[in-house]
Recover the amino acids of this structure.
């Protein structure tokens, strides 16, 4: 008979053998088990986030979505839900729950899997160190690792690791990220019902999440709520309210607060280059750019608005598709509004499918025309919204023929649209108007001339449409945007703003080509001898060529190179004077900044600082600043000790220059002074001359000579300078200009180099009254510049360009450039570098007056 004593002996033997077996297994596996010590200093893999300078989220990069939390940031109800569902004896066991383990073993033996084998500690071991393969060996390793973890960490530390590490579906890791992904909220803002849904996800996150299967998510939620009730974590009333609540989860992306995708991608690529892909996507870097949100929004609106304006004045290219093409054919053939029969009526399904198939960008909205009136149309928008487009939103739509030709203006709505047309519309305040996706491209960049910090950047109409960044990647011919640099070179080699140059046609035989080169003005007007200032204001092409010749090719090329333009990209012939060189908008803006800041070559930058996931600064920009001797003295006096220490500020190995000189014994920031590449007198004179491009060159003549950039007078700021630019055949149009603290360059053209910007025909229904307008920098690119600067300039108070030492002003005769004492319309004040004043007077003069005040300003002349 089998006695109790024998049973005890057998049990003792079995337990002893089990312990010995486990010991042997542990010894044999010990060398293969990973060290759990890394859990003490775990660094969470969190995505990279890009921010504006005012901390608006622009974009997020990284495969894993995670928002690390401390335990005190986690709602109590979530902790209770996890304990009740995953491990109700978590705070009482030693990493392995014998009761749960026994229940799991018994379930396996009886064929009833009751779960309960994996504790939270074991799940932590598996998620950090093991795979999810179901094998006995992995389970044993999991147990041993759980023992190690329990010996190293506290229960709260283990629970915190679990809450932040567990995969919860849709690339979310940890409950902080899951709350954002499924509900678009912070964890503390969730309801009990939502918390219960998340707490149920660890069982099978890919199949029972509320996006993939609301039905399964609800069933799992019920299990969680029941266990919380059984453990007295919630009341019966709370249980019933949460149990009956609807499943509300849906996909939520990162909460983007500022639309700046071109900037985000630039920052993204820069961080990849600095840190490598693995670190960039996992270290939780917060990248703060130099761009303030209000300026970026203004730039985006300016580019989009100007592109639509350009596109629409060249005509309407027709609907995306016509769902009833026979009606459109009838309207075209008979020039009348076709009758829509019952057989022609569109079904709701047809309308919805047509709208859903349209790809839209920016604020464009797909629509289907469901009624055509005499001077209006009714359209269906997404979500079954019906709106009316009045004639004011349709009348622009002359038929597009070519880039330089449009049909006569329409008189009736049926000449534009017919029933069943699928179109794009835009909303203008409370009204809707017909629109279309612009065919042309554009770009705008704005930066600080003091240190190169980019203030706004728009690389195209839509990043979703094209990721090609035209600000940094599109090298386009710059046209007359090159002239300030040509004129600057001429001033360095003996000329003045009052010098006379012959504005007359040039005919030059080209031996290599066997033809005559005839550069011409646009428009083809020639004024004979003309002052340099006036020639720049009116963008005289032949004068630029003559200045190039007089200065010398090598002198001009060397001068341009000093502005940061690559020598091998500068044409080595006279076409350079007309703008045959191809540069990016960023390169042009950088060159113009030299004039704005008094002669310093700054380096554009767009990342101000980078913080790690703990808020430590790992990179701080140290840009080159435009700073003269007085500025250096003032800056030196302002230097204070840096607060960051070596423990939380690190130089980047990927950068050539250390962003902060941490080796400096006194931890003082050293001034990073930009190279002076142009003397301040030259910079001032060219800046002042470019002011004439906007405000005119002869202030006391009515009407005074208008510069090509006169449209910017609408900004009512006399502290602005700029230059238009148009290339041959109007393939590219530019406007670049600046105030003392802001440089902006705008470009418009087609990505397809075979297309030009064309002309706009204004037809008054009479052939003899047809007016043709060529697209150029002044009417194609400058409007975008104006729109942006109108919003930006209020943030930069009126500030005159400081007249440097060794600049004098004298009254000269406008016709001859000689000195005069007259004060009538025949004379004007002009600025000169000291030592370059004219040496002669007009014959009837006996004396002359020279104003040598060093405090004279632009207002002396304008």
């Amino acid at each position: 008979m089998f006695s109790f004593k024998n049973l005890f002996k057998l049990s003792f033997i079995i337990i002893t053998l089990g312990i010995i077996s486990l010991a042997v297994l542990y010894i044999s596996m010990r060398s293969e088990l990973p060290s759990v010590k890394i859990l003490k200093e775990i660094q969470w893999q969190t995505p990279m986030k890009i921010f504006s300078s005012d901390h608006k989220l622009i974009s997020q990069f990284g495969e894993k979505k995670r928002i690390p939390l401390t335990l005190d940031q986690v709602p109590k109800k979530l902790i209770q839900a996890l304990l009740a569902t995953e491990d109700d004896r978590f705070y009482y066991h030693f990493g392995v729950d014998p009761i749960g383990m026994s229940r799991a073993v018994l379930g396996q033996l009886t064929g009833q899997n009751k779960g309960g084998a994996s504790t939270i500690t074991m799940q932590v071991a598996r998620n950090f160190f093991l795979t999810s393969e179901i094998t006995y060996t992995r389970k044993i390793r999991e147990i041993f690792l759980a023992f190690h973890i329990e010996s190293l960490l506290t229960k709260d530390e283990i629970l915190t690791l679990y809450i932040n590490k567990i995969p919860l579906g849709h690339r979310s890791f940890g409950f902080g990220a899951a709350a954002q992904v499924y509900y678009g909220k912070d964890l503390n803002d969730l309801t009990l019902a939502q918390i219960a849904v998340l707490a149920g996800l660890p069982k099978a996150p890919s199949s029972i999440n509320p996006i993939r299967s609301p039905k399964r998510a609800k069933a799992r939620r019920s299990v969680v709520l029941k266990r919380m009730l059984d453990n007295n974590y919630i009341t019966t009333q709370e249980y019933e309210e949460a149990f009956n609540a609807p499943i509300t989860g849906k996909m939520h992306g990162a909460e983007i607060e500022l639309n700046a995708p071109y900037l985000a991608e630039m920052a993204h690529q820069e961080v990849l280059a600095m840190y490598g892909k693995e670190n960039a996507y996992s270290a939780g870097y917060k990248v703060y750019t130099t761009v303030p949100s209000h300026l970026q929004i203004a730039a985006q609106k300016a580019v989009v608005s100007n592109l639509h304006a350009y596109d629409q004045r060249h005509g309407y290219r027709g609907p995306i598709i016509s769902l009833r093409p026979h009606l459109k054919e009838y309207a075209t053939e008979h020039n009348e509004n076709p009758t829509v029969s019952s057989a022609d009526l569109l079904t709701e399904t047809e309308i919805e499918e047509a709208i859903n198939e349209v790809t839209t960008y920016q604020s464009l909205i797909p629509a289907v025309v469901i009624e055509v009136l005499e001077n209006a149309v009714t359209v269906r928008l997404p979500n079954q919204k019906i709106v009316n487009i009045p004639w004011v939103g349709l009348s622009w739509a002359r038929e597009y023929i070519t880039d330089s030709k449009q049909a006569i203006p329409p008189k009736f709505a049926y000449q534009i649209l017919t029933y069943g047309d699928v179109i794009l519309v835009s909303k203008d305040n409370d009204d809707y108007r017909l629109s279309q996706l612009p065919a042309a491209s554009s770009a705008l960049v704005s930066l600080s001339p003091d240190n190169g910090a980019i203030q706004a950047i728009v690389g195209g109409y839509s990043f979703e449409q094209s990721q090609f960044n035209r600000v940094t990647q599109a090298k386009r011919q710059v046209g007359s945007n090159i002239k300030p640099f040509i004129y600057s070179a001429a001033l360095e080699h003996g000329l003045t703003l009052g010098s006379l140059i012959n504005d007359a046609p040039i005919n030059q035989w080209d031996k290599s080509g066997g033809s005559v080169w005839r550069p011409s003005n646009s428009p083809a007007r020639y004024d004979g001898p003309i002052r340099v200032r006036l020639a720049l204001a009116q963008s005289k092409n032949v004068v630029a060529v003559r200045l190039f010749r007089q200065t010398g090719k090598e002198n001009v090329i060397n001068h341009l190179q000093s502005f940061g333009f690559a020598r091998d990209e500068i044409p080595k012939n006279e076409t350079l004077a007309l703008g045959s060189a191809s540069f990016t908008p960023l390169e042009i803006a950088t060159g113009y900044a030299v004039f704005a800041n008094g002669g310093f070559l700054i380096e554009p930058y767009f990342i101000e600082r980078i913080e790690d996931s703990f808020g430590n600064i790992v990179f701080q920009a140290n840009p080159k600043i435009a700073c003269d001797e007085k500025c250096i003295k003032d800056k030196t006096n302002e230097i204070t000790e840096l607060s960051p220490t070596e423990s939380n500020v690190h130089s980047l190995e990927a950068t050539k220059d250390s962003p902060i000189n941490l080796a400096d014994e006194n931890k003082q920031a050293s001034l990073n002074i930009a190279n002076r590449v142009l003397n301040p007198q030259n910079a001032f004179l060219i800046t002042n001359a470019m002011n004439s491009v906007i405000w005119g060159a002869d202030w006391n003549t009515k009407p005074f000579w208008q510069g090509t950039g006169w449209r910017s007078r609408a900004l009512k700021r006399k502290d602005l300078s700029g230059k238009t630019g148009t290339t041959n055949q109007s393939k590219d149009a530019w406007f670049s200009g600046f105030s003392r603290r802001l440089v902006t360059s705008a470009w418009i053209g087609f990505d397809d180099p075979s297309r030009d910007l064309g002309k706009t025909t204004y037809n008054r229904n009479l052939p003899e009254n047809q007016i043709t307008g060529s697209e150029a920098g002044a009417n194609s690119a400058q409007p975008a510049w104006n729109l942006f600067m109108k919003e930006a300039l209020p943030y930069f108070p009126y500030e005159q360009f400081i007249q440097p030492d060794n600049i004098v002003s004298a009254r000269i005769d406008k016709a001859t450039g000689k000195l005069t004492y007259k004060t009538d319309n025949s004379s004007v004040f002009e600025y000169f570098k000291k030592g370059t004043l004219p040496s002669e007077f007009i014959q009837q003069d006996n004396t002359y007056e020279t104003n040598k005040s060093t405090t004279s300003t632009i207002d002396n002349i304008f």
Remarks:
- The radius of gyration is 36 Å.
